[in-house]
Amino acid sequence: MSRNFAATASDKIVFGDIFSFSATTAWSVGGFARFENFSGDQRSIITKYGTDPDERQFGLWSETDGTIRVHMNDVDRCTGASISLNTWYLVIATNDGTGGAGTLKLYTVAMDGTVIDNGVTGTPSEDDLQTASVDVGIRSDPGNNMDGDLAHVFLLTGDILNIAEVHKFRINPAKTFAQWHREHGSHFYLPMVGSDPESDWSGNGVPGTLSGTTVTDMPPTKIGYSGGNIIQFPVSAADPLVNTRISAMHFLKMYQPTTIGAS
After folding, report:
1. Model pTM?
2. CA angle at residue 197 from 195 to 200, to 5 degrees?
3. Peptide bond between residue 197 and the one before it cis (omega within 30 degrees of 0)
4. What number does CATH give the domain 2-255?
5. What average pLDDT does this structure show over 181-201?
């Protein structure tokens, strides 16, 4: 399942000041997003953005022209290509922690494997005040709230610097995140499985408070379910796995879902 966030400040997940998006810290953040509206406001996926201009540390959102932006310290650092409404995409921003030019990257991938933004680069920056809350689906200033669906949203302590890792998450988000979590550590992973209340989404002790939202359908990730009735194999020529030849049994062994933090 996923969660629908209406364009209102009451539909949100709030974590508090749990993390600093520092230029000199390795981190990756993102998830699956399906936007219902671009007009009028920026549509926030994840932000750390206080009302004070000195607290506007980080934002991952869509602009009114349908582009995806990575925003740090009140300045756009990465700008992607335009995407479509009512369509699922995987959106990930990653920083390698060295703090130099081009070390901040943006990836946007369609569900059939088509790459929209393949590591669009930017230069991260520091901010003196970093005390705002990390929020999902909202921004603290009026407006600029998500209008659409989010699923498998995460904050990872570590960098993902290649498109292959992004595709792994697109295909099987839960199992891939379990691997990332073991290798890097994490702050939260929100499968959006659809149960209420969910006071701890993370699986590793970082509570997030869910308010509002409604349950809706899940993004079409290509996962083999060993206990289910459907196996979704790649169907588009654009998909990097379309020419992969593996047995169904091996596919299930590779991609059997794992969960972290699913309540």
Report:
1. 0.81
2. 100
3. yes
4. 2.60.120.200
5. 68
